[in-house]
Amino acid sequence: MTKRRVVLKREEPPPPPPPSNPSMASANSSNTIRVHVRYGECQRNHAANVGGYAVDGCREFMAANAGTGDEEEETDGTLTCAACGCHRNFHRRVVETEPSSP
After folding, report:
1. Tens digits of residue pLDDT in 42-93
2. Local structure of residue 23 (DSSP, 8 states)
């Protein structure tokens, strides 16, 4: 059996450029942007050690201790998925931004 190497590239949008005009920066300082990060489906390849490709089908990341109120701190339980048991880094990262004013 021949092993195959698969390379996956992830593209994220570039950060917005800083304002070029200092007077514009002070005028726009009242506007803020809310960034919400969530983690989607699991992309872990469970058959990588045998040269195949198989994912478990976990649809969305759920922290292992989601009900304890420790969502602000990143402990071992919050970095482990309760559904599939893998680390949060194996899940697709989805960044949602929305403008908001004070």
Report:
1. 888 888 888 888 888 788 888 887 665 544 566 767 888 888 888 888 898 9
2. H
Please report, as a single letter, which amino acid is at residue 80: T
Domain range list for the chain: 32-100
**Are 81 and 42 a contacting pair, CB within 8 Å?**
yes
Residue 99: phi and psi, rounded to 5, are -75, 140
Q: Bridge partners of 95? A: 37
* pTM, two decimal places: 0.54
Give the CB-side neighbour count of residue 14, counting CA atoms within 13 A. Answer: 3
Q: Which amino acid is at 95?
A: V
Between CA 53 and CA 7 the distance in angstroms is: 12
